[in-house]
Amino acid sequence: MLSMVTFNCQSLRKNVSDLSDPVIDSSDILFLSEIWSNDDENVDIPNFNCFAKFKRKNVRSAGVTIDQKSKDSSNMNIALRYIREISMGQSSIGDTCAAHCVLDDGINIIMVVVYISFNSTVNNIVT
Fold this sequence. Notes:
Blueprint: E1 4-8, H1 12-15, H2 22-25, E2 29-33, E3 48-54, E4 64-69, E5 80-86, E6 94-103, E7 108-116, H3 122-126
Parallel strand pairs: 1-2
Antiparallel strand pairs: 2-4, 3-4, 5-6, 6-7
Protein name: ATP-dependent DNA helicase
GO molecular function, one term: helicase activity
Keywords: ATP-binding, Helicase, Hydrolase, Nucleotide-binding
């Protein structure tokens, strides 16, 4: 079983302590949006490693990451044999990052997290 949680941080640095609760602790993958970090900033989340991240340059109030439970964590209940970030293009309407994962049993999964900027119109999103 693979368990995943999505969380709109509205500042990862400010809310990293909120990422320590029973639901998050039992999750294998975190999808985080609105991380509100500087372009070169990394925020450590206890028991997780960031393996995919995208943030538009000079746009502080956005950003997305995909984080995997640390290999040395005793709660890891699946084995990801292979995991890599997939490059995503930059968009003026939001941020997207993706990862290709292969589970121990050979099943392939594409994971994607998307943040659409406030005030984006449906027409801009669709085109």
